[in-house]
Write a structure and sequence with these properties.
This protein has 15 helices and 10 strands. With about 375 residues, it is an alpha+beta fold. The strands form 2 sheets. The protein has a 5-stranded antiparallel β-sheet, sandwiched between helices. A 5-stranded mixed β-sheet has the order 7-8-6-9-10, with helices on both faces.
């Protein structure tokens, strides 16, 4: 740790609120980097250099300081962090009067610096995690060995099977223009994720309103519990004012497995938003064939629809709704008519009418597949 004015001056200011003597802090080279006397900053402090060399306190009496560069009478003691001397703290005054303060000051300063060092380490680790997850999410980033090395540093166990969960907060960046408030909300959401997934391999903010969690899973009951937990998380976030979508990827392990699960989680969110079903949480396996369609470029889906509707009339809303219910209920006449509260003969009449207008019979499996693809392509934007 290198002492700078930015680190040391706030500590000196706090110290001088409780004692009536000037306090100086010197770096590992004996340069004054913080002081109650601004004119002394950047001067070499001979007493600090000697305290560093001796690795113990250096008391400067009236008879000493006149012959020592940049010093006044007082007491100076080394500041030690993790058994390394990073600087010196000194109090200016009559040594016999101030000696009782110096070791209290030393302990206080070292404690504050250790806390600051810990915060810097945590901040660095969090920044490294964010960078790591962004590289994981980037399917074009292929330095797998570096990803594995950083995973080891971040204590991410790649041998554990887990499911990646993506949480997208709607208009997160647009709704909160104040950077400080946005940062506070990031921290708030990350704390909520820790609360719901205390055993996660990692949880972090990916950017663009997307948060990710890697949750270890062992078996199917774990998958069901994960889904339930995500439903509860969704409700909690909504209660806190965060409209959100949650996508869950398949259980996997290793760098490529995590990447695959993350891609699936984000894809599940994309499909959720496009289908506008009213649901906010979905596992990728819920989408079945729709997942394959989502991989097809939008321009190809648009071309398929244009070819299908060429020289075909539009279905009246009544027929289109009937077709949708019929397909959703696996071509079952009884269930469809009951759900729509219509007579079975009415359903048959409508299905015949669809066949007449579009040339496809929904009761035939091959034709039903084509019609289902049309419905899905219309929903996928």
């Amino acid at each position: 740790m290198i002492l700078t004015s930015a680190i040391a001056q706030p500590i000196v200011d706090e110290m001088m609120k409780v004692i009536d003597y000037n306090v100086n802090m010197m770096n590992h080279e004996g340069v004054i980097v913080a002081s109650g006397d601004p004119e002394r900053i950047h001067q070499i402090h001979q007493g600090a250099l000697e305290a560093i060399e001796l690795r113990r306190e250096r008391i400067i009496h009236q008879t000493d300081f006149r012959n020592m560069q940049g010093t006044n009478k007082g007491v100076n003691v080394p500041i030690e962090i993790e058994d390394n001397i990073v600087g010196v703290v000194g109090i200016t005054g009559e040594p016999t009067k101030i000696y009782k303060y110096i070791h209290i000051i030393k302990i206080t300063v070292e404690t504050l610096l250790e806390q600051q060092l810990l915060m810097e380490q945590l901040r660095y680790k969090q920044t490294t995690l964010e960078e790591w997850v962004n590289h994981l999410a980037d399917t074009k980033y292929n330095n797998i060995s570096l990803l594995e090395s950083k995973a080891n540093y971040l204590q991410i166990d790649l041998l554990k099977s887990c499911s990646v969960i993506a949480i997208e907060i709607k208009d997160f960046n647009k709704a909160i223009l104040d950077y400080e408030m946005r940062y506070k909300n990031e921290i708030k959401i990350l704390k909520t994720l820790k609360l719901y997934f205390p055993q996660s391999l990692f949880s972090t903010y990916l950017g663009q309103g997307v948060f990710v969690v890697a949750q270890p899973l062992k078996n199917n009951p774990d998958v069901n519990l994960c889904m339930q937990t995500c439903q509860e998380l969704n409700q909690t976030l909504e209660n806190e004012g965060f409209v959100n979508y949650i996508g869950i990827g398949c259980k996997n392990k290793g760098i490529m497995g995590l990447r695959s699960s993350l891609v699936e989680a984000r894809q599940s969110i994309d499909i959720l938003k496009q289908f506008e079903s009213g649901e906010s949480v979905a596992h990728i396996t819920e989408w079945g064939s729709i997942q394959l369609l989502a991989f097809i470029p939008a321009n190809l889906r648009k071309s398929y629809l244009a070819q299908f509707f060429h020289q075909k009339p539009s279905l009246p809303p009544e027929l289109k709704e009937t077709l949708r219910f019929y397909l959703e209920n696996d071509l079952n006449n009884k269930i469809t008519s009951e759900m729509m509260h219509i007579h079975r003969n009415t359903l048959i009449y409508r299905l015949d009418k669809i066949k007449e207008l579009w040339g496809l019979d929904p009761r035939k499996f091959g034709d039903a597949v084509k019609l289902q693809l049309v419905f899905w392509c219309e929903k996928l934007k």
